[in-house]
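Just wondering, does anyone understand these tokens?
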Amino acid sequence: MDDDIDKTHAELAGFAKPGGRLRQAIDKDEFALFCQPILALSGEERYPMAEVLVRMREEEQALLPPGEFLPVFEHYRMMPQLDRWVVRNTVRRLAAGSRIKRFTVNVHGQTLEDEEFPRFVAAQLSLNRVPAESLLFEIDESDTLARLAAASGFAAAYHAQGGRVLIDGFGRRSVSFAAIKEIRADFVKIDGSIVRKLVTSEVARTKLGAILRVGQALGYAAVAEFVEEQDILLRLKALDVPFAQGFGVYQPHPIEALAG
């Protein structure tokens, strides 16, 4: 794995320099947006939202998965520029019309520390006449805990705009509600380390039950991620989990195919 990353760094080393490949990729829109719908386990609207995913175009229009290029952006601290590209193009997709009315966008820890990012988001929404409630930001739990002040500041700024935020990867290490309380999360994605074991592990079911009970008190809705089997989906329905996402629900597709 390290050898692969080192190779990618060597091949893309010029990316971060002025006029380099990373900047060129952003300036020339050498990315593609995919999305993965999130299933509502009750109610009339089957897919009320979808997570936006980004791929990078390479030679002969091949698409690189995130693991191939995100470490390079992270290394050169260029995630704020990439996150801006994703936001700009997601908002444009919403403005052009979409069958899916809300998209969730991941925001990197580096971007949380960018004090101009909330204003950029507000400007993009205003310019395209898209309501903030149509764009939901996902913040990984580890990023929230590592950058608590920055995450809290961003969440407060976006809540003030009328937007909502989501904690991703919840329960990956332990179940602590500090991050959720700090940013007043509207949604919580339950990590696959819990979801995958729901059928076989009483511990996993107990953790999920606690997350759901606290959700009723704190006012967040739970999304089970990494749902890959129908048995797990049935268990989630029985436990009244509101939302589910994963390859067993819907695989990622180009955003135009699902939203256009």
Notes: Residues 170 and 190 are 5 Å apart (CA to CA). The longest helix spans residues 79-96. The chain has a mean pLDDT of 90.
